[in-house]
Amino acid sequence: MSRTKPKTHIIGSLQGMEAALAEMADIDRSIARHTADMNEVMDKAKADSKAQCEPLLQRRKALEDAVATFATLHRSELFDKKKSRDLGFGIVGFRKVTKLLTLPKITLGNVLERLHDLGFTSAIRTKESVDREVMREWPEERLHTVGMRRVSEDEFYIEIASEELAREA
What we know:
two-stranded antiparallel sheet; 2 strands
């Protein structure tokens, strides 16, 4: 594959900048149209696939329920020595599952409150992260204490006026 050097476009006037912004707005509208068309095609494909799969999923669920019912009714005969059975197209069996459920009339909120009260914090999930929004209000000294610093800079931005261009177009 051969190498090519990108050609830079140089704007020489305010009118050139305005023309570039207008072209960028046009490009944004074209991208939005293509994206909408793509989403429409994908939505139709998903709907078609769902319609085709729905009867298959219902049949699979019915077969799964029938196999589970048969295995439950004949558990003592099918699983007298082993907890599972290999049937060629799959394995069926029973496994021990332990669940944690709340006591009657107790909600998970009550459990969380009790965990806090009793100091069992190891059973409480917490997600910690740095809150930069709060730190923006801090003085410089406090920022340095925790290993942060404030840097101000001018950042260039482009804001395309899509409403005005859409009315003009």
